[in-house]
Structure formats: structure tokens, C-alpha cells
Amino acid sequence: MDLGHVSAPVRISSRTGRWILVTTVLGSSMALLDSTVVNVALPRIGHDLNADLAALQWTVNAYLVTLAGLILLGGSLGDRYGRRKIFVLGVVWFAAASLLCGLAPSAHVLIAARALQGIGGALLTPGSLALIQASFHPDDRGRAVGLWSGFGGIGAAVGPFLGGWLVDGPGWRWVFLLNVPVALVCAPLAVRHVPESSDERGHGRFDVLGAVLGALALALVTYALIQARGDVVPVALTGAAGIVAAVAFVCVERRVPDPMMPLDVFASRQFSAVNVVTLGVYAAFGGFFFLTALQLQVVSGYSPLRAGTALLPTTVLMLLFSARSGALADRIGPRLPLTVGPLLCAGAMLLMLRVGRDADYLTDVLPALVVMGAGMVTLVAPLTATVLASVDTSRAGLASGINNAAARAAGLVAVAALPLLSGMGPEAYRSADAFDAAFRRAMPICAALLVAAAVLAFATVRRPAPGCPRPHCRTHGAMTAPPLEDGRPGPAPRTR
Questions:
Q1: Assigned CATH for 267-487
Q2: Total-model pTM
Q3: pLDDT at residue 259 tops 90
Q4: 20 to 30 A Cα–Cα from 67, which one of 33, 93, 197, 212?
């Protein structure tokens, strides 16, 4: 793959190579940590800012709207203007928005700051991987990407525990303020130690209109779902405007010369089907982690620290076994893992129905989370591998980006829709009985999404042809989206 203008390739054993890894891990960990710690802090945020459930939903979703809508554009900006430059801009932007989050005097300011955070995340998340791709020698690139994803997974695993400790200790504002000192270390390291690179072929127009329409469609549909219990006419008009924006997005992507999301990539039936599976799976995951962090605190009486620690088994299992799961899928094909994995996760959702008032961790909570982790281990790596294998090798990076954006979009729609579908009122999180009743209606909905995804995977997924690209991100711990990939072909999968 031609990387355009870049200095001499760096070896992973060199001093520069180690600094590049440290810098990119620090940058991406800011976004990963933020996506996992905020859920644990939501009850305290609601109490301190006198916010209703809708405001808590927007605290999560404002970030996801801009991140999902702009993540593909963020990668293109790095290719054009310099990957290090855009990465540093993303780190500084993310830190400034985090500072605004930490100082927010009201829920409205916090929500606006979270949207700004998502823009920073859209710049730094693909930028960190692009820097590795552009800087390292081809013989070391796969190992470097693997280390980046592994350390990022550790950061994601630490997130809920760290978030709970901060909320119980100095307060929820430090969940956001912690990003500032990290950025103060990361940005200078990038400027000093990371070589600049760009793609000299990147001279086409940016698909800014497509990015704006995509983010606008997500924001309007999300608003309509969250505010659905309000006045009917404004909600209906907002929902209709969101659908119009989505249609306009498709029309723009069909006609512009350099689309952010080329529609012809969906000509692959398997790519289209696996992305629908992704929507179902990650909608269920997004709803599960959003509601479970609240259920453990509001209903079961857990402290933020205890609630964050309670979620560790899923991420630990992912870190320990996701690479082995990917290797197993290489041998037996992705169809079985992509069928069994969602079914295991659906079972975990139903086991969560045992988690109520004064839930015992060992007998009520832990079994569900272990089954959940086993299901995620089974399906996440094969899902990413199948996405990469379903398109031409030259478009693997694009396919990964689209799949990642789809996963995040599914999560934000689930966070918006599940409280509505489960009958959760604006003040439900202030009442243990009301929240528990809605949680018990929401978990079967999540389970049904996973069962539908399993059925679709069984019906459509086929073994990829020999020589298809394999993921370099073999170790994975993030819960809300599949790993981004660098778009380079990995070793050919073994066949029978």
C-alpha cells in the first residue's frame, strides 16, 4: 500500500519506534477510556446537574453522534494535511473539550462539550492507527498494530474501574479532567518523536457535505427517539427531517467524485450482511452497558467504584482470549462464531434479569458477565475478519472504518431508543422500582436483537477465500465498537 510522503520506515525496536507506540497508545486511550468511564458516572452527573434521563442519554450520545459521523472524514484529513498534524490537533481538541466537560455548570453545557469531544475523537482515533501504518517498516507494522490494539484494550479494561474510583473519590468531573494531563504529555511527544507523513495522492475534494449530512441524520433521529414522549408535532418533524437527511446523505455519496462512504462497497452481499449483523450486535451492546451501569447503582445499590469493577470480567476475557478466538475462526470459518457468539450474549442479557435489589455479585451479576464476555470473545474478532475479507484488499481500511462507524451509530440509536421502548420515564433513574421494571423490559429487547443477528449471520456468512486480509488488531478490549484496522492484508488464513 502506497503511503505517500513519509520518512524512512521505522523499526519497532528503535527508540523512535517505541516513542511512536507510546504516543499513539496514549492518544487512542484517551478516547477509549472516555467511552467506557462515562456510563459509570451518569447517576452522579444527573444528581449534581439536576438532569433528567434524556440529558443522561445525550451525555452519551452527543459524543457518539459526532464521532460516528466524522470518523471517516478524520482519517482523510490526516492523509491530506499530515497524519501527525491531525493527530495532535485531535489530542488538543479532545483535551480542550474534556476541560469544558469537567467545568460544565449545567447539563446543556456538558452535552455541547461532549459533542465537541466526539470531533476530537474522530481526529485522533483513526489518526493514531494511521501514524503506525505510515511510520513502521512493513515487517514490523503488523506487530506494532497488535501492540497498539492490545495496550488500547488494557486502557478500555481499566476504564470502568478508574471511572468508579474517580466518581467515588474526587468526583465525576475528574472523569473528563484526567484527559488534560494525558494530552499535555501526548501532544509534545508526538511533535518531538513522531515523523510526519501524508498521502501525496490525496488531492480530491473532501466530502464535507456527506459528513455533515451523516452526522445531522444521526442527531435528528436520536433527538426524535429521546424526546418521543414530548410534543408530537416537533418530534415527528425532527424524525422526518432525520430521514430526509439520511436520504440526502445517500444521494450525495452516490454522486460526489470522492465520497466519504463509496456505496459500491455494499455491492458485496457479505459485506452488507455483516454490517447489518454489526448493527444488531452493537446496538445490543450499547444498550446493555448503558443500562447495566445504571441498574447496578440505582437498583442494586452499588457504589460507582463497585459498579465499575463489576464490569471488569467482560473486558478481561476479551483481552485474554480475543486473539485465540480469531485464530479459531481462521480454522473453522466465521459462520459458527458469528452465530454462537450473539446467542451467548443473548443468554447473558436474560441472565441479567436476576440482577435486582441487593443483587449478590458472585451468584447474580458475575455469571451474566462471564457469559457476556464469552460471547463477545467468540464473535468480535471473527466479525472484524469477515468485514475485511468481504471486500477487495485495497479497500480493507475503508471497510473497517465503515464497520466501526456503523457500530457506534448502532450504539447511540440503542441508547436513545431502549428507554422509550422499555417505558422508562424521564425520572426513572431516580426510582429503583421504576428503573428496575424498565430494565427487565429492555434486556429481552437486547436479547432479541442478538438472536436476529445470529440468524442473519448463519444464513449469510460464508468462509472467505484464501489470501483475504486478516485483522492485525487481534487483542481487543473495547466494548462499544469493533477495532479499527490499518487496511493492510495480514497473513492468509489457514484453510482446511
A1: 1.20.1250.20
A2: 0.88
A3: no
A4: 197
